[in-house]
Design a protein that fits this description.
Layout (H helix, E strand, L loop, with lengths): L1 H5 L11 E2 L2 E2 L4 H19 L4 H19 L7 H30 L1
Antiparallel strand pairs: 1-2
Helix pairs in contact: 2-4, 3-4
Length: about 110
Amino acid sequence: MKLGKSSGCHQRADRSFFWHGYQFPICARCTGVVSGYFWGGLLYLKIQLPIEWCLLMCLIMFIDWHIQHLGIKKSTNVRRLLTGMLCGVGYMQLMLYLLKSLIRIIL
């Protein structure tokens, strides 16, 4: 749990998954983002998504968060997980594009 807290996650029990009675060290949205980083990196090896798609994927998570923050509609842990994964994939792809561009500039 210390690792999750040090990463900046709020770790709220009502927004976290549980496995055999134990709470995940990070909330559902952060779980999605972290797993999205992994999948985004793997995907980048085969397919580089258009930058616009990556930005849209990040925006979808922000919209979900904002709708809940404004009290328009409460999000669910499954929706937090899925929008977090989308954001994680998009963000990782953007970071790998940036890294690739920086390497080209340096070399």
